[in-house]
Amino acid sequence: MTERLIVTPAGIALGPLDLIADGAARGFVIEMRAGRFHGFVVRRGDAVYGYVDRCPHMGLPLAQKLDDYVAGDMIACSWHGAVFDTASGKCRGGPCPGTGLTRWPVTIRDGTIVTA
Fold first, then answer.
1. How far is CA 45 from CA 21, 24, 42, 48, 53, in A?
2. How many whole angstroms separate alpha carbon 102 and alpha carbon 39?
3. Side-chain-side CA neighbours of residue 26 (13 Å)
4. Among 39, 9, 19, which residue's Cα sits nearest to residue 115?
5. pLDDT tens readout for residues 99-109
6. What's the distance, CA 66 to chain centroid?
7. Assessment of whether the complete model's pTM goes beyond 0.70
8. CA angle 61, 13, 55 (to 5 degrees)
9. DSSP secondary structure letters along the chain
10. How far apart (Å, rounded) are the C-alpha atoms in residues 71 and 78?
11. 29, 46, 81, 106: most buried by Cβ count inside 10 Å?
């Protein structure tokens, strides 16, 4: 079984900013020697927010359908209805009070989304 990682090295190019529609998200799986990383990036205009794809409530990936991480202006867990603030990852409702998503540092460099 492959180890599930919660960090990635800086400098991995994930793709151009327009890979993700404004207001949407995209999941990424990165295979490394130590294991596999599962994360997602949410785009809001020219800003991107990255998180490890793991709900703090039950430890499951948030999306049951491919790239289905956003509901309205929040990040949503499709399993139990938890919702999270897009910019901070803090739980805003559902079975996750006092918790939040684990940040995955990403940035935009020359129009490309890159791990930071």
1. 9, 10, 10, 8, 21
2. 10
3. 16
4. 9
5. 999 999 999 99
6. 12
7. yes
8. 15
9. -PPEES---TT-EEEEGGGS-TT-EEEEEEEETTEEEEEEEEEETTEEEEEES--TTTS--S-SSTT--EETTEEE-TTT--EEETTT-BEEESS-TT-BPPB--EEEETTEEEE-
10. 9
11. 106
At 32, is the pLDDT very low, low, confident or very high (cuts 50, 70, 90)? very high
- At 114, which amino acid appears? V
Cα-based distances in Å from 44 to 13, 32, 52, 79, 98? 19, 28, 18, 24, 24
On whether the CB atoms of residues 49 and 18 are closer than 8 A, the answer is no
- Residue 72: left if φ>0, alpha if ψ -120 to 50, beta else—which one? left
Tokens 């209805």 map to which residue?
Answer: 81
**Residues for the chain: how many in total?**
116
Amino acid at 84: F
φ, ψ dihedrals at 19, nearest 5°: -65, -25
